[in-house]
Write a structure and sequence with these properties.
The protein has 5 helices and 5 strands; from the N terminus they run βαβαβαβαβα. By secondary structure, it is of the alpha/beta class. Strand 3 (58-62), helix 3 and strand 4 form a beta-alpha-beta unit. Helix 1 packs across helix 5 (115-128). The two termini are 17 Å apart.
Length: 136
């Protein structure tokens, strides 16, 4: 029997940013949560494909991604995908946290990523927005 996992979609046009996010959060953000399976997306098209497929339990978007930043992608997903998975936006400046209100993100993490803070944020979002169990 396979152990349960949580699928987290991580988007950035820069592989090193995706790697930094994945490394900071780790394979298990909290002992009471399942292990994390990551899907990496390097383009907005990849994000939209995964979001449409409904495979992600959580989406983490790089707010500085090019040519379309994670804030705009967050707003698009929140307005177009039903049900939309929870979204965390990674920003470079603490002062950009206010943009999360506009982007409709569920939470924000700030670069440079502190592994403890990033994992706690992910864990809290996953607990707060857990999908109901599938019915048989």
């Amino acid at each position: 029997m396979n152990a349960p996992t949580t699928t987290v979609l991580v988007f950035s046009h820069k592989p090193e940013v995706r790697e930094a996010i994945i490394t900071a959060i780790g394979r298990r953000p909290a002992p009471d949560l399942p292990r994390v399976h990551y899907i990496e997306a390097g383009t907005v098209a990849d994000v939209l494909t995964e979001a449409d497929a409904g495979t992600a339990d959580l989406v983490i978007l790089d707010g500085e991604a090019q040519p379309t930043g994670g804030m705009g992608v967050s707003r698009q997903l929140k307005n177009e995908i039903e049900p939309c998975p929870p979204i965390i936006v990674a920003v470079r400046r603490k002062d950009d946290r206010w943009l999360a209100t506009w982007s409709q993100a569920d939470a924000v993490i700030v670069h440079p990523l502190d592994p403890i803070s990033a994992a706690e944020t992910v864990a809290e979002v996953l607990r707060t927005h857990a999908r109901p169990p599938a019915r048989a």
